[in-house]
Amino acid sequence: MVDGYSVILRCNYIDPSLVPQVYKIVFNKLLEILTMSFNLRKEVLKAFKGLHRARTAVFEGDENALHLMRAKINEEFQKNKHVEDKSKISEMIQLAKDVETELRTTVVQAREVEPQKYEVRFREETVRMENYPYQDVPEEILMANMKKAGKKCGDRGKTVT
């Protein structure tokens, strides 16, 4: 098979018998590029839509937060729409997926229902961790712990005579 690119670059005249081969080579290369670009574009749009869906789920009912997040997501995608390097695009897609996961699992809504009393809205995706209530420690215990922490590691096991 003849390399279509080298035939076109070497001369202005293409042997009519080679035209179908040249077209086939060029068409296949173009199809390969378009398919790869289409798949990458599809992934970018999927990440974009995922972020917007996460935004609407996380900030439901908070019009100000919804508007600000919408503007920020759109701004970031517009800022990077001219990037052509496939590896950088893949990195940004992964970053968008990570941000979506963080939004869905760590951000909660809270609103003040009474002075010093808040109502928190958790979703199914929200990661819940152990919650230990605050205990006020007397200052004598804090000072004793600070003195212990100030000793060198080697001094703890020795006895002074």
Describe the structure.
The chain has 161 residues and is mainly α. It has one domain (4-151). Helices cover 60% and strands 7% of the residues. It contains 5 helices and 2 strands, in the order H-H-H-H-E-E-H. The protein has helices at 4-10, 19-58, 63-79, 86-106, 139-150, and strands at 109-114, 117-121. The protein has a two-stranded antiparallel sheet with strand order 1-2. Helix 1 crosses helix 2 (19-58), helix 2 (19-58) runs antiparallel to helix 3 (63-79) and helix 2 (19-58) runs parallel beside helix 4 (86-106). The longest helix is centred in the N-terminal third of the chain and has 40 residues, at 19-58. The radius of gyration is 31 Å and the shape is elongated. 4% of the residues are buried. Mean pLDDT is 79; it is low at 1-11.
Describe the SSE topology.
Layout: H1 4-10, H2 19-58, H3 63-79, H4 86-106, E1 109-114, E2 117-121, H5 139-150
Antiparallel strand pairs: 1-2
Helix pairs in contact: 1-2, 2-3, 2-4
Short synopsis of the structure:
The protein is mainly alpha-helical and 161 residues long. 60% of the residues lie in helices and 7% in strands. The protein has a two-stranded antiparallel sheet.
